[in-house]
Design goal:
The complex is a heterodimer. Chain A is an all-beta fold. Chain A is 0% helix and 61% strand. Chain A contains no helices and 11 strands. By secondary structure, chain B is an all-beta fold. Helices cover 0% and strands 52% of the residues of chain B. In chain B, strand 4 and strand 5 form a beta hairpin. The chains are: A mainly beta, B mainly beta. Chains A and B meet through strand 4, strand 5, strand 9 and strand 10 of A and strand 4, strand 5, strand 9 and strand 10 of B.
Chain lengths: 113, 115
């Protein structure tokens, strides 16, 4: 079985500040890990993915995430927040013979001017 | 490449009716998955199809069904609609085969409202 826990349902940062969104996972098989972003009234857009290559993964829009097996974490960061980053962010896990994505509950990111 | 398309984008139905939602995957993607998104339950997996066969199914009642056609397009059907079926239904397609990393690409969703 696989599961994802996103710590903090709502994170608020100032424009230009560091963004840190937390994700911990549980998986009985080597995981594939993903971060998605969802803007209002839209579908999910893939930000980045971890597929057992490099542990530090760079994605679109300046986001990156680091896979830490010992901590079962895959936190998402961005050095400097922009107003356009305001959205809901979802961490997801899959792997093994399981072709489905298991999502966390999501973190709503607010960026204050 | 065109992205995943879903039709219709918005739908209003009455309790007890049935509904069919359609999804066209990214060209070349043979795997199509469906998810239900609600404020209370979040994103929940419905089912996944590959080469016209259902490979995985989530924990939803039998009122929820789907199918995939030979061109990889997929439909999902919900019969005897209940108020709790009101949700955003998301379709996602995935590249498959050797070296696949399971990433899924999502459509814009169909917003279903049951009254």
């Amino acid at each position: 079985a696989q599961s994802v826990t996103q710590l903090g349902s709502h994170v608020s940062v100032s424009e230009g500040a560091l963004v840190l969104l937390r994700c911990n996972y549980s998986s009985s098989v080597p995981p594939y890990l993903f971060w998605y972003v969802q803007y209002p009234n839209q579908g999910l857009q893939l930000l980045l993915k971890y597929t057992s290559a490099a542990t530090l993964v760079k994605g679109i829009n300046g986001f990156e995430a680091e896979f830490k097996k010992s901590e079962t974490s895959f936190h998402l960061t961005k050095p400097s927040a922009h107003m356009s980053d305001a959205a809901e962010y979802f961490c997801a896990v899959s792997g093994g013979s399981n072709y489905k994505l298991t999502f966390g509950k999501g973190t709503l990111l607010t960026v204050n001017p | 490449k065109a992205g995943v398309t879903q039709t219709p984008r918005y739908l209003i139905k009455t309790r007890g009716q049935q509904v069919t939602l359609s999804c066209s995957p990214i060209s070349g993607h043979r795997s199509v998955s469906w998810y239900q998104q609600t404020p209370g339950q979040g994103l929940q997996f419905l089912f996944e199809y590959f080469s016209e066969t259902q490979r995985n199914k989530g924990n939803f009642p039998g009122r929820f069904s789907g199918r995939q056609f030979s061109n990889s397009r997929s439909e999902m059907n919900v019969s005897t609609l209940e108020l709790g079926d009101s949700a955003l239904y998301l379709c996602a397609s995935s590249p498959t085969g050797a070296g696949s990393s399971y990433e899924q690409y999502f459509g814009p969703g169909t917003r279903l409202t049951v009254t």
